[in-house]
Every structure is written in C-alpha cells, then in structure tokens.
Amino acid sequence: MWLKFEQRTEPSVLMRYLSPLIAVGLMLLSGMLIFAMLGKSPVTGFRIFFLNPLRDTYGVAELFLKATPLMLCAVGLSVGFRANVWNIGAEGQLLVGALAAGAVALHFPNSSSPFLLPAMVAAGALGGMVWAAIPAWLRTRFNANEILTSLMLVYVAQLMLSWLVHGPWMDPEGFNFPQTKLFQPHALLPILVPGTRVNAALFLAVGALIAGWVFMNRSFMGYQMKVAGQAENAGRYAGFSARRAIWLGMLVGGGMAGIAGMSEVAGPVGQITEHISPGYGFAAMIVAFVGRLNPIGIFFSSLLLALLYMGGEQAQQYLALPYSISNVFQGMLLFFLLASDVFINFRPRLAGRRK
Amino acid sequence: MRKVYPSVVANDGVDLTVLPGEIHAVVGENGAGKSTLMKAIYGVIRPDAGELRWEGRVVTIANPAQARELGIGMVFQHFSLFETLTVAQNVALAMPGKFDLATLSRRIVEVSERYGLPVDPRRLVHALSVGERQRVEIIRCLLQNPRLLILDEPTSVLTPQAVRKLFQTLRQLASEGVSILYISHKLDEIQELCHTATILRGGKVTGTCVPAQETTKTLARMMIGEDLPVIHHGEPTAGGEVRLRIDGLTQPTEDPFGIQLKDIHLEVRSGEIVGIAGVSGNGQQELLKAISGEQPLAQKHAVQVCGVSAGKMNASRRRSLGMCFVPEERLGRGAVPRLTLTENILLTAYRKGMTVSGMIRFGAARRFTQECIRRFDVRCGGANSEAKSLSGGNLQKFIVGREIMQEPKLLVLAQPTWGVDVGAASFIRRQLLELRNAGTAVLVISEELDELFEICDRLVVIAKGTLSPTKITSETGVEEIGVWMSGMWPATPGDGTHVA
C-alpha cells in the first residue's frame, strides 16, 4: 500500500479549522513524550504544564495578562500577513513602542493628567510605527525584502534599549541595575481585578481584535489588502496601490506591537528594563497563524501561547526543567501546524500497489 | 473510458480509436470532457473504469513520464512551463537522459526552424507571450519523436500563415506514421486538417464522422446540440466622439525580452469596434498595460481616455473616467482564484454603489454578481463559488460580464474568446456588437483573425511594437492582414515612419 496525497478540488474548510486543533493535540502528545524522555511522569508533566497555571483566579488573570501583548501583536501582524507583507520584526517594534511610551512616562514624573496614559498609548503606537516604517520605506523605495530588514531591526532595537537602560535612562538610585526609575502611579495601567496583575490593556487588545475583524472582513481597504496578498497582478489590474498595502500592513503591525510594548512597561513591568518581552513579538507570528489570521482565532491562540509561557515557568519551578521548554512547545506547535495545513489542499489516500 | 470528478461525470463510456498516421479530431464544447480524455491517455489522471490499448497491448499509464516512454507526447492548452526557467531548461526537464543544455539548445533551434516555430532557447518563460509559450510546448513534444501527438487547441494564438505551416508540419508527421489527436473547436480547421473526428458532448461520444464530408453547420450541431445563432454585424459606422486616443506613445521596456512600443497613434470612437491584429509577442502586452494603466506612463498626453490625459494615471483612476478592461489572463489578473465571485465582482465594479464610507456593501455586490451570472449564463455553483472553480470559458463570460455591466464608455478587451467554446464565443461577440450599437467605444486585441473580421469596423495590425495604418474591415481581407502581421505594410503618404 502507498500513502498518496491527492490534490483536493476545493481547499477543505473543515481542515482549515481542524488543523490548528490537530497541531495542538500533536503538540500535547509529543510534549508528554518529551517529559517521559526527560524522566518525568508524562501525566504529572501535563498537569503541571497545562493545568497548574490555571488553578486559581490569579493564574487565570495572568493568562489574560500574558495573552494581551500577543493579541495586540498578532492582530496587527495578520493585517500585513494577509497582504503578503511579512513583518517579522514585531519584537523590535514592541521594544521601540515600549521605549517611546516609557519616555513619556519618565518625562512627566509628577503629572496626574488623565491624558498621560492615552499619550503613552499614542507614543507607543507611534514608536512601533516609526520602527516598522523603516522596512516599509526600504521595501517600497528600494524593493528590499522586508523579512530581512524588519528582522535585523529587532536587534538594533534590542541594542538601543540596552544602551538606554545602561546609560542615559538608568535610574541613578537603582544600585547600578540596568533599569529606569519605576513609573509613577498615573503612568501605570489600572488593574482590572484586585489582587491580580491583569490590566486595562486587555480592553485595548479586545478592541483591536474587533477593529481588526471589521477592517479585514468589511472594509474595502481590507479587501484590497487581501487581493494584493493573493494575486498581485489582479491588484494592479484593479488599480489598487501595492505601496499603500505595504505601508498599511507594516504600520498597523508596528503600531499594534508598539501598543503591546506600552502595555508591558505600563503594566506588569512598571519600568523599562532589558527584559520587557520574553519574545512576544516572535510568538505573535505563531499566534497569528494558529489563529488562521482571523481575529476570533487569534483570541484563542493567544491564550494558548500565553499558557505555554506560564507552563514553562511552572515546569521550571516544579519539574526542574529549563524555561526554554516553552520555546520547544512553541516550535512544535508551529511545526505541527504547518504539517497539518497540508491537508487543507491535499487529501491523503491509501492507494493499491501499481498493477 | 469513464472518469468521475466529485461534481461531474467528465467522461461517460467514451470510445476512441486512433490509427497510425491518422489525424484524429476530438471536438466538443468546453466541459464536454475532451481534456479529461486526453489527460487519461497521457497518464495525468487515472480513469475510474475502461481499458487503454497501445499498439494492441493493454496498458495502464501511471504518469506522463511513462506515457512519453511509450511514445505519447502532449501539448497542453494550459501550459505546463516553469516561468522562472529558460526555454531550454524547461525542455530539459521533460527530456530523459543526460542534462546537456548546449546540445539541447541547438536541437531546439533546429526543430523550431524546421517547423516554423521561432523561439530563442535562452529566454525566460515568464517573459514569453501566450503564443510563444505554446511554441515551446510544441517543440518540447516534437523533440521526443512521439508516435502519438496530442494537441490541445494548438492554433488559437497563431497567425493564419503560421497555422498553415503548423498544418504542414502535422501532415508531414502523419505521413511519417505519427498519429495525431487534435483537440479543437475550430470547425473549419478540423475540416481542413483532420481525417476523422470524434465528437463529445456532456462527457459522451455523440458521433464520429469524416469532417471533409460534413459542413461546419452539421459539425456544430453535433457539438452543441443545436444550431449556432447567426451574428448580424450591421452597417459599419465611422463612429462618434473620440473615447480613446493614443498619441505618439513610445515606451521603452524594462523587461530585457519585452517589446518596445514605438510612436503609436490610435483613435477609438464611440459606436465602433476597432481590432488590433497581430502575432503574440509583438507588443500587445505592453500596449495593453499602457492603455489599462497597469503600467503608468511618463508622458501624460500619450494616452487620453474620454478626452482626459490619463498617461500617468493608474488603472483605478482610468476606470473612473469610464474605461473598462478585460485582460488576457483570467485567473490571477482578471480574477483572484481563491476569492468568491461576489468578491471578484468588487475587484472593478465596486464603483457601482458597492462601498459606503470605506465599507463594503455585500448585499449590493451579491445582487450585481447574481445579475451577471444570469445575464451572461455563467455556469457555476452560485455567487459564493470560488473563481478558481469555474471553467475557463465560464470565467471569461463572468469577467466580460462584469466589465460590460459597468456600462463603460470605452471597453478594451484582450483575447476576448481565447479558449472559449463556440457557443460562448459567439455570445460574447454578440454582446460586444450590442455594446457598440449602444454607443460604446470598443477596442479588441486578438490573435484570432476570424473573430476580428467578424466584429470589427476597423482593423489595425501590431508588429514589432509599431502599429500599421488602419483599414476599414470590409476593404481588406485575411490575406492582406496576414501579410501585415509579419510587419510588412506599405508606407502611408506623409508618414514614412511606419515602414517596417
């Protein structure tokens, strides 16, 4: 018998939505296998990794807290991804957004204005957009591949952040730790549930998901981006501007990542340090694809990825496994997703041996 | 032979016998099952039931490589060439044995000269026109000395002279004992060339005949099951106001293998159909992009649409002036394959009240789509079908319908009926004539001379990036235009630049 892949006449809608679930299932199975190979009980491993983080209100609140920057980044990225604008640099845009928002907070240490937080959100968005504008400009002006330029700018952003917190922005009373002063209370996002860390940025993220859904599915500009992504020549034939699609895709992605950065420094971190983001900008790409570039899907997939981050911390604490186990799970999820996506366009069939 | 697809029985008990040295026509409308039958013979698909005997032996052909080994070659209607590779590399991919590009290139040149199919083996396929790509496909087959050659609509993009040359080639091959399966819906060609014909309709054989003993009319009836409507051209008109003026358009090309447009002058007036004839690859693509705005120009005045200088405008702004455009490629240019028909209506027809403050009015788009499907008899699963799921002819009807329903002042069409079956082609031509009678200016760029002679009021020829003088259709003939298509037209008094 042979296993053959036959092209489907129509891409399977069922598989399109089943594929992320299959990927999650396979990730869980392989995860348990890995636990077993590391000499841990798979059942205990599963419990600690996936159930332990959610055992109380605090845990659930943490899940939403960690999902917030993922939602923001992923919904922004998916706008571009749908138009074949491959912004890989959300991590850098997130950091620059955090720096810009932090600059506003540090510049007004005594302000109690209700406009301080909105100004920080705006500054964060602007910072991310400026960082994303560089690859957009390089692409439209010089046709430079935005995958490379946006990725390289991540490292520039990281070094810039590092220089600022080691140098000009370092807290003089901070015992020489590479970090800024703590933000003043009016520059911190309000907490939603007392006793937890989940904050108002969650509303921003959910608002962004709704706006993203309307933009992608109902607006004519979103439609033009879809055409540009699927058939460039059809876009040119219709007279839709390819440049505009690139600029919009990059700027929306950068702006959202910037807001995500703001939500971190004005939220759980409360200051600018070298460790603002545990790779949210990169994980957001997995979120976007597991969520099928669809805001509703992104909502759920960001919760899943947030759970992986928390599971990693738990595994570190209770199983004495390295934190990088989170990255292993992220990697497996993406790998299995790409593999099961094959079944959207192809049907496996057992064929008899050639006569 | 029987082959069932999820939605349709493509072949239903089809019998076909081809003798050595016979040129055998397989005739039928789009969707009649011709391509399925050929693909089964060539090993692209596996039939669900039936038996295939090759030189008396029962064989199962698992894949095209095995078919080629047996001595079966095929030229597809939809080309199977890799766009990023050169002609020689593409041919090399289909050749068994050692990979030797230099020798192969020489053989390509030999064969192409012998059979009158000029093509440069070093050129990249993406830069070739449809007609040139087809030549590559034919040459690729001939290089393998097949004993059965399958040709799917081979003449649709050739000049009359080149068709005759191809026919000579095919007759020569047949006399050497090669069997030829010739798929076409051009009945006059079949009568001229083929010894026997098998006619398919709806997946079944509806008859076999000797084409020379039939008339075009009786063949057509067997093929579509009814008589073709007669096209009434009406009186040729001089036209009214100028809707499209191309004034001294000179456009260098960025593509190293592209054609440079040289000092093009053309006027299209309301109420007339102007046709541009020419062998593909003589500047049609470049001219079309310059007219449509897909390639905006440096000179503002070189293209004027409805009296407005539009040279620098993109396609969308030119449409706002009242121009509509049907491109040569349907999937990927005229329509987005993975989007529904409703979404594809939006592509150009959104101006017809389908957006309000940046948001899409899907209701309006759906009504427009349903109207288009109904009026232009688009066979599909409904407004929510993906464009990709439609057959070539039906998608063409859809795109032509979409553009016509926008009530353009100027309609530009490239290859309006390429690969479309006779019934649908005649329908599209009638629509164009109706549009002209209603006062629209129509410009048709086509490689099918019969079509141009059937519908155009005036004709002009494009060759090597320049335009010939215009001729009133009734005052010229296929012979003259055919000669002009090779670039040889007389100089017009006071305008010596047009000598080629």
Describe the structure.
The complex is a heterodimer of chains A (355) and B (500). Chain A has 355 residues and is mainly α. Chain A has a domain of 224 residues. In chain A, strands 1-2 form a two-stranded antiparallel ribbon. Chain A starts with a strand and ends with a strand. Chain B has 500 residues and is an alpha/beta fold. Helix content of chain B is 33%, strand content 20%. Chain B contains 16 helices and 23 strands. In chain B, strands 13, 16, 19, 20, 21, 22 and 23 form a 7-stranded mixed sheet that branches. A 6-stranded mixed sheet of chain B has the order 6-7-8-3-9-10, sandwiched between helices. In chain B, a hairpin with a 2-residue loop joins strand 14 and strand 15. The N and C termini of chain B lie far apart (52 Å). The C terminus of chain B is likely disordered. Chains A and B meet through helix 8 and helix 9 of A and helix 10, helix 11 and strand 18 of B.
User: Number of helical runs of chain B?
Assistant: 16
Query: How many helices of chain A does DSSP assign?
Result: 13
Summing up helix and strand content along with how strands pair, one would put the structural category of chain A as mainly alpha
E-strand count of chain A: 2
Low-confidence stretches of chain B: 494-500
Q: What is the distance, rounded to the nearest whole angstrom, between the alpha carbons of the first and last residues of chain A?
A: 12 Å
CATH topology heading of the largest domain in chain B:
Rossmann fold
Brief description of this entry?
Chain A is mainly α and 355 residues long. Helix content of chain A is 70%, strand content 3%.
